[in-house]
Amino acid sequence: MSQIAGTNITYGILIEKTSSGSPADKAGLRGGSQIVEIGGQQYAIGGDIIVSINGVRIVNYDAYATYMERHATPGQAIQVTIIRSGAYQVVSVVVGAVPSQ
User: Fold this and answer.
1) 3 found inside a domain
2) Spatial contact of 4 and 37, defined as CB atoms under 8 Å apart
3) pLDDT in tens, 60-100
4) Does residue 27 belong to any structural domain of this protein?
C-alpha cells in the first residue's frame, strides 16, 4: 500500500475521506483523490497519512482507535503528524464528540 500511496512509509493510517464539517475537515486534513483497486477492494489514495498523535506513533487503525479512546477527549487539541505529498507536517486538530452508532 505504501508504494501505491506514493511514499516509503510502512506504518500509519491513510485518510480515505473526511466528512464536511468534521474536526479533520476543519483542521485541513485531506482524504484521497483517486480510487485504486487492490486485491479486489477499492481504496481512495492520495490523502494524508497519519503517522503520530502527540508524539505517539500510530502504526495502524487499531493503534489510532486505542490512542483516541484512552487519551483524547472532546474539545482537546491534539497534534497530528501527517505525511502529505511526501513531506511531514504537524496539524492541530480539536477532538470532536464520538458519533453515536
Assistant:
1) no
2) no
3) 999 999 999 999 999 999 999 999 988 999 999 999 987 66
4) yes
Name residue, grid cell 476543519.
26
Give DSSP secondary structure letters for 24-86.
HHHHT----SEEEEETTEEEEESS-EEEEETTEE--SHHHHHHHHHHH--TT-EEEEEEEETT
Q: Which three cell numbers stand for residue 61?
A: 487503525
Look at residue 8 and tell me if it is in a domain: no
Interior angle at CA 96, CA 68 and CA 19, nearest 5: 100
Sorting pLDDT into bands at 50, 70 and 90, what band is 21?
very high
